[in-house]
Amino acid sequence: MKSNLIKGLLVSLFTIGLIFTGTSFTCAQPSQSLSVSKYGTLLEIFDANGKSQFGKLNGDGFQITYQFNGKTISASAIGEEATGLVTGSIKTVGQTATAVTTTNDHVLEITTYLRLNEKTKKLIIQRNFKNLSKEPVVVLTLQEYVSPVLVMSNQLSSEPVSDKLVGLIKNQLAATINLGDCKPAECPKTPPACPIPCPLKLLYDVSRVTIRPGLSGDKPETVILPWNGSISMNPSSKTNEVSTVSYLDVPM
Predict the structure, then answer these.
(1) Are 188 and 122 in contact (CB under 8 A)?
(2) What one-character DSSP code corresponds to residue 204?
(3) Would you call 7 helix, strand, or coil by DSSP?
(4) Domain enclosing residue 226, as ranges
(5) 5 belongs to a structural domain
(6) Are 250 and 122 in contact (CB under 8 A)?
(7) Residue 122, CB half-sphere, CA atoms under 13 Å: how many?
(8) Average pLDDT over residues 47-67
(9) Residue 203 to residues 1, 4, 111, 162, 252, Cα–Cα distance (Å)
């Protein structure tokens, strides 16, 4: 009897506390989330129920070729495979993810920021390449690898690679791919608060987009967005880092 009175009193006090503090048990709506490798490549996109929307993404990644101390060096990552890179760290918060890795020679630090915007159905992929050395680094080529399902309909992503398919993808990407930037309007409310700074943004050459078929057939495996040029990243200056930013209309 005494224990029942105590329980009743505690429940009453708890209820009164909720009334005065305005506390609510309304749960936040679950949202989509990202799975990212330790090299900064996108592996999967999950819906609010934890279901993979496109399955495993094996075609996402990047490749960079640079000159350092007279040597030409390449580093790349696609899916969970990497060459010339050190296993990095990942931080995921809601619909954003940030991964930081370095090249094997510790000359470049590569930070990848990803954000999925459910309202606009856009995926932002930003990569920042920073010169960690005390010597100039010359970037020769940069390529962004994109999984076909992120830029094509299911029907197109199952078609054989052809000039017609490449043309369709070029037209589709031309409208959005180079729009990304470090704009405050793109900052999510939850941390990481904003995309990493863009000291120097490199634009992709959409006219030179290619599609690489898989080893087991002629179906698209990776859409390759190239940047070609020669740009020097000088230490201890504003030009010691460059960025690429991709805006993708994700078919959800």
Answers:
(1) no
(2) P
(3) helix
(4) 29-249
(5) no
(6) yes
(7) 15
(8) 89
(9) 76, 70, 17, 25, 26
Residue 20 resides in a domain: no
Look up tokens 């129920």; give the residue: 49
pLDDT at 155: 67
- Does any domain span residue 13? no
| Residue 124: burial class (beta carbons within 10 Å; 0-12, 13-18, 19+) | buried
What pLDDT digit, counting tens, does each position of 105-153 carry?
A: 999 999 998 888 777 778 888 899 999 999 999 999 999 999 888 887 6
| Domains contained in the chain, number | 1
Q: Tokens 């992929």: give the residue.
A: 125
Answer yes or no: is 6 within a domain.
no
Query: What's 18's DSSP letter?
Result: H
Ramachandran area for residue 233 (φ above 0: left; ψ -120 to 50: alpha; else beta): beta
Q: Quick check: helix, strand or coil at residue 219?
A: coil
Q: Pick the closest to residue 124 from 71, 173, 180, 162 (CA basis).
A: 180
Per residue in 149-208, pLDDT (tens digit) is 888 766 676 788 889 889 888 888 877 776 555 454 455 555 454 556 666 778 888 889
Using alpha carbons, select from 35, 64, 42 the residue that is nearest to residue 125. 42
* Model-wide pTM > 0.85: no
Both tokens of residue 70? 């007279």
